[in-house]
Amino acid sequence: MSIPIWRLTKIFVLIKLLQLVIVYITTIRFDTSSEIIINAQLASHQALVEQWPKFPITTLITRILNKFITWDIVYFSDLYVNDIKFEHQFVFCPNWWRLIKSIGPDNFYSRLIVSVIVSNTCHYLSVLVLYMLTRDYLSRFQRREVLDRHSELASILMIIAPAGIFLTSGYSEVFSNLLSFTAIYLHNKSFNHQDFSQANNKSIRYVSMYVILGILTAYNFTIRANLVLLGVLYLYDLYEFVLVNHNWTQGTWAIITGSQIFLSIVNQNWISYRTFCPQRGEWCENRIPSLFQYAQDHYWNVGFMKYWTPNNIPNFILASPLLVIHGLAIRHYIKELPKIKKIMPLVLINCLLMVGAIFFWNVQIFNRISSFLPLSYWYVAQLILEDDWRGRAMAYFMIIYGLLQTSLFAAFLPPA
């Protein structure tokens, strides 16, 4: 397998440069609350400038970094240099900001730079992993030259993904995307899909790889909470091994692997409970005390249809194009299921993600949190391969939306 690294790298660098230019030239800031943080970190900025006195580009960098202190990065950037203090900060899964905190000198701007470098490195690597993942999943269903082109187009679409500037500025989505694509890739690799002794022609080929994947997905939950949906991979395995194959040995491995995500959830919940309870009262007194659930409801108004209010109609409009793309991708691959049976758990995860975004969460975040799933990239790439105008229209939408969103982000305007 030969990855077209040079072509992908040129497109990747071009998109990133366009984003940085847009961030730099955007001058208006609708929300100036981040100025509080910037003013509090003047000493850190001066220390960085003094550390690199012969590099005037330092001022250019910090001007861009100041624009990145927006939305969730307001919280992340504080946690890069300070200890966690307030209960709502526990919503931001800890192993992203802890990773950045563990790298580089103890300087606010140095760690912001590290977060941007790590984010973009993870984005680039996720583009390459998606190429391998596409080839691996679809290799038996397409001719070699078609498969190569399909994989390359899917990777390009990952570069121009609607998550846009959120994949550049230091958000946790990028690291979770890389871990997600890697987990899906290795999950598929761990199976023998041509074991004709089994009713579904599927069995575990590499048990050690399969079980270690549980650690990877459990860790990914501590980067982005919505990655708990990857647990569907193991629930579906359990269904196939036990109810279809009647193989309790392999079903037990699915339980062992999938339960690691459950243990990660319990551990995160226990840490917050131990920190605040019982003296906190309120959520501590619930039958199942969950700070994450309470904070999402109390601070961000997350809950069933709570976001269905007239003032949120613009947010539904912002998310609707990508919701349509994902909906069409789900419909397409449901039709492909007789041919590509192993894609079923990815379809289920995508369905659950859409249900969560439409009925439970702040819907506009779908444009960035959906970037960890490959189906939409595969679907649009397939349309482009077939010279379908819808594929080109969707690709143009991704480019235009990504660049427009970059300017809105730099101006501290929605979508968040």
Structural description of this entry:
With 416 residues, the protein is mainly alpha-helical. The protein has one domain. The chain is 66% helix and 1% strand. The chain has 18 helices and two strands. It has helices at 5-25, 34-40, 42-51, 57-68, 73-81, 94-101, 108-138, 144-159, 173-189, 207-221, 231-244, 248-276, 291-300, 313-336, 344-359, 366-369, 375-385, 389-410, and strands at residues 191-192, 203-204. A two-stranded antiparallel sheet has the order 1-2. The longest helix has 31 residues, at 108-138. It is globular, with a radius of gyration of 22 Å. The protein starts with a helix and ends in a 6-residue tail after the last helix. The model has no long low-confidence stretch (mean pLDDT 92).
Q: Roughly what is the average pLDDT, rounded to an integer? A: 92
- Can you give the helix content as a percent range? 55-70%
Low-confidence stretches: none
Instruction: Supply the helix-strand structural class.
Output: mainly alpha
Distance between the terminal alpha carbons, to the nearest Å?
38 Å
Whole-number tally of structural domains: 1
- The side-by-side strand order for the widest beta sheet comes to 1-2
Number of strands: 2
Shape: globular
SSE sequence, one letter per element? HHHHHHHHHEEHHHHHHHHH
Q: SSE layout and pairings?
A:
Elements: H1 5-25, H2 34-40, H3 42-51, H4 57-68, H5 73-81, H6 94-101, H7 108-138, H8 144-159, H9 173-189, E1 191-192, E2 203-204, H10 207-221, H11 231-244, H12 248-276, H13 291-300, H14 313-336, H15 344-359, H16 366-369, H17 375-385, H18 389-410
Helix pairs in contact: 1-8, 1-18, 5-6, 7-8, 7-9, 8-17, 9-10, 10-12, 11-12, 14-15, 14-17, 17-18
